[in-house]
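Continuing the batch. This is chain 6 of the set; chains 1 through 5 are on the previous pages. Same settings as before, nothing changed between runs. Recording input and output for traceability.
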Amino acid sequence: MFYKKIPLPFSFSFQWIIRIILFVYFIIILSHISYADEIAYNFDIPTTKRGYFLIDETTGIPKFTKGKAIIRKSDQYSTNTSFSSTDTAFFVIDPWDNMPSDFLNKYFGKITNQYILPLIRKANHYNFKTFIFTNSCKNLSYSCSIPKSFNDLLNSKNIKLFFWQEIPSSLDLANNLRQMGIKKIIYTGFASNCCILFRSAGMIDMQKQGFQIYFVPKASAAVETTETWVTGEVHKFTSTVIAQNLGSLIEYKDIFQKLNSISSCTP
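Output for chain 6:
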């Protein structure tokens, strides 16, 4: 049995050719967008810790000689650390602009505008995730509002705002971070001797959850004593304690300059 081949009108065939071309072009564009979203940006910078004993980098325990732990000649030491947009998140803790003190609003606000916001903008440009934590203003009239400068950033898919009242526990937050592939947290915000340490998203709980902790002292400040607001001694001491027990310190100029010359690779 033979089938008769019926020729298609030229106009019909031409329309289908155009549709196929447009479809292929659309797939190429989508592939390009997906590829761009998957790009991993990376940088290496020195990070600083403090410790009394010389630590074996492989095992994480003190090195011994003749039955005694080896004591460091200097308790401060640096290592080169790699950060990637696939495994690192920035935390901004309580960057309030409506605290019940004009002095605190000005003191902390200067750091937010000069250091935190430029750093977060730069990190966001290279697909690093940022989580901003604050109180909900629904039932509070102070210590809940954040600067309007953050509003534009919140439109980014990489930046999320969290209210403390809506975080069930540090474990829930940690599980969400792990699902995103986050292993390292870089802390900024306020105050270094209060919320950054003790909140549910603070260093102590996140270290217990197994995350590697990093802190940018220049992008933070402490609630000082009456005698230390000018010198910032409480913040300096807190930073030292963090370097001894919780994580590593990052110099602001190191991370900001590195973000300006960042490299990329595909995972």
